[in-house]
Amino acid sequence: MEKYHPPVGFHFKVTFESLSTNDSDNSFQSVSGLSVDLETEEIAEGGENRFKYKIPVRSKFPNLVLKRGLLVNSEVIKWCKKALENFEIEPLDITVMLLDENHEALQTWNIIRAYPVKWNVGDFNAEESKLVIETLELTYTYFKVA
User: Distance between CA atoms of 56 and 39, rounded to whole angstroms?
Assistant: First the structure.
């Protein structure tokens, strides 16, 4: 029987549906925000003072945060700038795939109706020799794991 080894988190791919992007535009240093919380509401029962009931209300998804080295002439950044500068919001579906050693998808997260809410470019500093990192923050409706 072969021993199970959890997958590594550094081999992944991000794709933007209905955006004509190249491999550079789909490469990111990190992806965060793939989590879900169940919001609850407390209800006190009349006559029972020892506790309150917690009733599930809805799922809550944090913003998706993508980081990478600054990419000039990026279609993704053009999409972000249209939303952030011109308020031309065009929600897109995004796919995040965790890949194995053969570049096959181990698990896929389908992010539904994402659009940018923040774009940040890292600091410039003449005393350091490091890459310029851009950060995209996207809000979305929900995600499905496939």
Answer: 6
